[in-house]
């Protein structure tokens, strides 16, 4: 039996003012003006400047740098972004007034970062003339991941640097086509996530990496990005050349996952594989997770393939359907709950039609994320990572696949999810009806279509203790907004042949069932039927159907945690 911990401990603020490194005063801006263009490779000409007066001229053929500048941690977040990131509260309880105080109004693009500045001096050899400089920077010390900018200046504003240490070198390119390179050096950037990005005319972009996990590791930067899609403003706006340059050559995206409901939101970048995982959103049915759980399985299949990285996922504006994807990925990777919600709220710095925050009444433009996050919180587990891991296992995603994603995306200490649950799925289950195997992502991989008087059973060797019985399934009938038909009146539960009382009081509607109105698929959801005492040994858990038809995919018994 796992030690029980109060879930509120998950919500302790992860970012405090004491833990943030103070930025250099010369780089803190008092306004939230955003850059109007993105560095775009060889075509970029940053603002010209004369030879830096505070860097002594080196000998011929040598570079000199401002060591104080390179050793000062530079800030990429605007004043209002910092105000939001340093809120001394639980982000799950943030509201409109909190967002208003940071000018995070959801109606303009103030989501992009500040640039980082690097200056140098160079004296060419006698008889040589510099035509331009190449500035190459990256996260790896050998610059094998390097991105090149071109300038005629000796000072450069750099966008989309990595959080923490960045490696770089400068190459003087002479007019006679010869060149001279500096040693590889470093500059420092705040480690305060998110690594929000400047991607041309596309708003609401950020890297999921850079955050510390529950296990003490860190999510790798440069592998998974979230953002907006084509026609994000409903005015036909497509990515401009700067956006394409950043996505293809700087971020090096290999796979585009579109979770919107239209191919019209695909960016369709040259050489990038498009994976469509169309999701539904809005206020119907009750749970956004129920409508899109099978699509989450599709996305996890993609992320378990190392050859797909770097990955960029988006819907239209990068908030609701992108939001649920980010919650599930972040939860799996072990990003702390408070930071997951903080990242969700960061989208309010972009033009997302209107503000989004937990608990907001859903409308035609967005979801109330509490509707599905509370369902995850209600699952057994001590941390939000353990709860999310269990939610994904309930959806039929193998543990080996989830562990692969964690290992691919984590540097340092990796999570080791304890074995506090037993999951029965597919051929592990015994039923009075034949198993069905899905060929697409409209239904679980394997399930039983069970009508009145049908049953599905799971035998498992259990430790002694109080345990939750959880079922992952879909309801094939129409529920509309009906709250009178209860889950407990539609199902039966027997443990070792003895009928048990189902304590779940939700209606079928509140349990997340109903048509997704997307790709002709139904909603699938996990629901805790109740918690029951078990002795050590083998037990049989049987789910029966009283009325209607349910597609039952998974039965789970997990240690109960208050």
Structure description:
The protein is an alpha+beta fold and 562 residues long. It folds into three domains: 15-78 and 113-192, Immunoglobulins (Immunoglobulin-like, Sandwich); 193-411, Protein tyrosine phosphatase superfamily (Protein-Tyrosine Phosphatase, Chain A, Alpha-Beta Complex); 421-559, Jelly Rolls. It has helices at residues 67-71, 79-85, 96-101, 241-250, 288-303, 321-333, 337-345, 370-377, 384-394, 399-409, 487-490, and strands at residues 62-65, 116-123, 130-138, 147-151, 155-158, 164-174, 179-181, 185-189, 195-196, 206-207, 218-219, 224-227, 255-258, 273-276, 311-314, 410-411, 421-425, 430-431, 435-437, 446-450, 455-462, 465-475, 491-495, 498-500, 524-534, 537-545, 550-559. α5 packs across α6. It starts with 61 loop residues before the first strand and ends with a strand. Residues 1-50 have low confidence and may be disordered.
């Amino acid at each position: 039996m796992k030690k029980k911990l109060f879930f509120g401990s998950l919500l302790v603020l992860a970012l405090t003012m004491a833990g943030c490194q103070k930025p250099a005063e010369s780089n803190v801006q008092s306004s939230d003006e955003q850059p109007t263009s993105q560095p775009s490779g060889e075509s970029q000409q940053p603002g010209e400047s004369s030879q830096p007066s505070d860097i002594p001229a080196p000998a011929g053929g040598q570079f000199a740098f401002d060591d104080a500048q390179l050793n000062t941690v530079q800030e990429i977040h605007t004043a209002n972004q910092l105000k939001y990131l340093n809120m001394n509260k639980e982000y799950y309880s943030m509201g409109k007034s909190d967002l208003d105080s940071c000018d995070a109004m959801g109606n303009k693009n103030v989501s992009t970062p500040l640039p980082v500045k690097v200056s140098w001096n160079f004296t060419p050899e006698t008889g040589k003339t510099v035509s331009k400089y190449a500035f190459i920077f990256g996260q790896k010390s050998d610059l094998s991941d390097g991105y090149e900018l071109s300038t005629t200046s000796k000072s450069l504003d750099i966008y989309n640097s990595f959080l923490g240490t960045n490696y770089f070198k400068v190459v003087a390119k002479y007019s006679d086509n010869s060149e001279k390179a500096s040693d590889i050096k470093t500059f420092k950037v705040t480690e305060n996530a998110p690594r929000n990005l400047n991607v041309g005319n596309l708003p609401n972009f950020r890297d999921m990496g850079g955050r510390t996990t529950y296990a003490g590791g860190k999510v790798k930067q440069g592998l998974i990005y979230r953002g907006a899609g084509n026609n994000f403003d409903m005015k036909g706006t497509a990515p401009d050349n700067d956006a394409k340059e950043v996505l293809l050559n700087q971020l090096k995206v290999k796979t585009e996952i579109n979770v919107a409901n239209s191919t019209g939101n695909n960016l369709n970048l040259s050489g990038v594989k498009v994976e469509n995982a169309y999701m539904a959103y809005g206020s119907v049915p009750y749970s956004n997770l129920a409508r899109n759980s099978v699509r989450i399985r599709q996305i996890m299949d993609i992320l378990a393939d190392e050859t797909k990285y770097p990955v960029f996922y988006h819907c239209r504006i990068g908030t609701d359907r992108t939001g649920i994807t980010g919650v599930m990925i972040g939860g799996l990777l072990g990003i702390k709950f408070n930071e997951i919600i903080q990242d969700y709220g960061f989208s309010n710095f972009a033009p997302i039609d209107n503000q989004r925050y937990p608990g907001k009444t859903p409308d035609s433009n967005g979801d109330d994320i509490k509707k599905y996050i509370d369902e995850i919180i209600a699952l057994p587990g001590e941390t939000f990572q353990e709860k999310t891991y269990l939610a994904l296992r309930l959806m039929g995603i193998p543990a080996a696949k989830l562990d692969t994603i964690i290992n691919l995306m984590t540097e340092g200490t990796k999570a080791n999810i304890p074995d506090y649950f037993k999951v029965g799925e597919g051929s592990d289950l015994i039923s009075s009806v034949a198993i069905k195997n899905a060929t697409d992502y409209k239904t679980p991989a394997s399930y039983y279509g069970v009508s009145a008087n049908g049953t599905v059973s799971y035998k498992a060797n259990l430790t002694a203790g109080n345990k939750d019985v959880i079922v992952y399934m879909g309801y094939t009938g129409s529920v509309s907004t009906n709250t009178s038909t209860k889950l407990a009146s539609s199902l039966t539960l027997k443990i070792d042949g003895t009928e048990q009382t189902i304590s779940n009081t939700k209606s079928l509607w509140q349990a997340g069932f109903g048509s997704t109105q997307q790709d002709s698929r139904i909603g699938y959801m996990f629901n805790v039927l109740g918690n029951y005492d078990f002795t050590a040994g083998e037990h049989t858990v049987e789910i029966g159907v009283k009325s209607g038809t349910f597609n039952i995919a998974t039965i789970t018994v997990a240690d109960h945690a208050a």
